[in-house]
Amino acid sequence: MKEQLEAFQAAALDTIAQADTLSALEEARVKYLGRKGAITEILRGLGKVSAEERPAMGQLANVVKGAIGSALDDRKVELSATADAAREESEAVDLSLPGRRPQRGHIHMVNQVTEEIIDIFAGLGFQVAVGPDIETEFYNFDSLNTPADHPARDSHDTFFVKPGVVLRTHTSPVQMRVMEQVQPPVAVLAPGRVYRVDYDASHSPMFNQIEGLLVDEGVTFADLKGTLMHFVHHLFGKNTKVRFRPHFFPFTEPSAEMDISCTVCSGKGCRLCKNSGWLEALGCGMVHPEVFKHANYDYEKYSGFAFGLGIDRIAMLRHAVPSINHLYDNDLRFLEQF
Ligand code: DAH
Question: Do both 18 and 78 map to the same domain?
Answer without folding.
Answer: yes
